[in-house]
Design goal:
The chain is an alpha/beta fold. It has 2 domains: about 220 residues, TIM Barrel; about 55 residues. It is about 45% helix and about 15% strand. The chain has 12 helices and 10 strands. The strands form 2 sheets. It has an 8-stranded parallel barrel with strand order 1-2-3-4-5-6-7-8, surrounded by 4 helices. A two-stranded antiparallel sheet has the order 9-10. Helix 11 crosses helix 12.
């Protein structure tokens, strides 16, 4: 399983929007993706990079994970982006359109300290190479780029996202194999809270660690859905207590509410409590 750092809400913020960068320090999001790629117009890329570098050297974002999405290496801005942020106090550098492990290695070699490479999983080739990407040295996590992926596939995802399900689950399988986080793609209609909630619930039930977001108004829903509920926390505590009581009597399993409780259930229960503690500690 990935580290228990909360990643329920992962908000994209355009690096070209100074006011948004300043407000980010007060947002209750678990992670911020400072975006130099899609959210920044070509004629603003250089200025946005300079402003972002200055801000990241001084601003305090508390426990929030700080991620910078750079431009693709094939563009005129990609190499300069990596060079500019390589030694900044950030947690991860998000690389767009990762097709294979070589794309991770190319960036990982330029980074210093604990900064990891995160991969945008948004191409057909990348999805088919998810397992090898997840094993690449320096990899730290996956973010699903469902808009770009749907465009390349030529599919039409509806509310159930069935046309993307193979890709979502392939990336999740690879991430779990490697023990790295996997963050679900964005929901575009940011004012439609009901559909956002439904998509967050679907992602959570699939096993995603959180949801990437395009608007601060989406944070509360993602934080709620991807956090253990009070009912789940209480059940986890009862499962642990029942199992410990059973093992103290020399029994290998317990029965709680008519259901068997084995060691694997207890391990899951302890992860639930650990996630709840991590969220409480983060203060979001």
């Amino acid at each position: 399983m990935p580290e228990l750092r909360p990643l329920r809400s992962v908000l994209y913020i355009p690096a070209s929007k100074t006011s948004a960068l300043q407000k980010a320090v007060d947002l209750p999001t678990d992670a911020i993706i400072f975006d130099l790629e899609d959210a920044v117009a070509p004629d603003q890329k250089d200025d946005a990079r300079k402003a972002l570098v200055a801000m990241l050297r001084e601003a305090d974002h508390g426990a929030r994970m700080r991620i910078v999405r750079v431009n693709d290496a094939a563009t005129e801005w990609g190499a300069a982006d990596v060079t500019a942020v390589a030694d900044l106090p950030i947690d991860a550098l998000l690389v767009p359109k990762v097709n294979g492990p070589d794309d991770v290695a190319r960036v990982a070699g330029a980074l210093t300290g604990p900064t990891r490479v995160w991969a945008m999983m948004e191409t057909a080739e990348g999805i088919l190479n998810a397992a090898s990407i997840a094993r690449a040295p320096g990899i730290g996590g996956f973010v699903l780029g469902t808009n770009d992926l749907a465009e390349e596939l030529g599919c039409r995802p509806g509310p159930d996202r069935l046309p993307l399900m193979t890709a979502l689950q392939t990336c999740l399988l690879a991430a779990r194999m490697a023990g790295i986080p996997c963050i679900d793609g964005v929901y575009n209609a940011f004012r439609d809270e009901d559909r956002l909630r439904a998509e967050c619930v679907q992602g959570r039930d699939l096993g995603m660690d959180g949801k990437s977001l395009i608007h601060p108004g989406q944070i509360a829903v993602a934080n709620e859905v991807f956090a253990p509920s009070d009912t789940e926390i209480e059940l986890a505590r009862r499962q642990i207590a029942a199992y410990e009581s059973a093992t103290a009597r020399g029994q290998g399993v317990a029965v709680l509410d008519g259901r068997i409780v084995e060691n694997l259930h207890v391990e899951s229960a302890r992860r639930t409590l650990a996630r709840a503690d991590a969220i409480a500690g983060a203060g979001n």
